[in-house]
């Protein structure tokens, strides 16, 4: 109903970004810039988006510096390791894929997000 006023999105598409309680603090629906944008606060959303992007760049620079330091010291550097997924090579296609390794639903049940990084 009223699809013509909603860019002909389905009900599912329209509700995908709805906030949900008790999700990981890294859930993209919690992005502060996105929340500001959705409430029509465009200028604030833009400033927040720039802040988040600079925060991401700083993390990347820190990881790159750690990798260089490890290389100079002759040590291995693992880099970023996803919390809920692991990278594997698909046996059929030979492509690198991410496979769920568990833990998210248990953390959600316990509301223990202590392993989540502060990304916002």
From TrEMBL:
It holds the Pfam family Oxysterol_BP. It comes from the Eukaryota. InterPro entries: OSBP_sf, Oxysterol-bd. One of its GO terms (cellular component) is perinuclear endoplasmic reticulum. GO terms for molecular function: cholesterol binding. Signal peptide: none annotated. This is OSBP1 protein. It comes from Ramphastos sulfuratus.
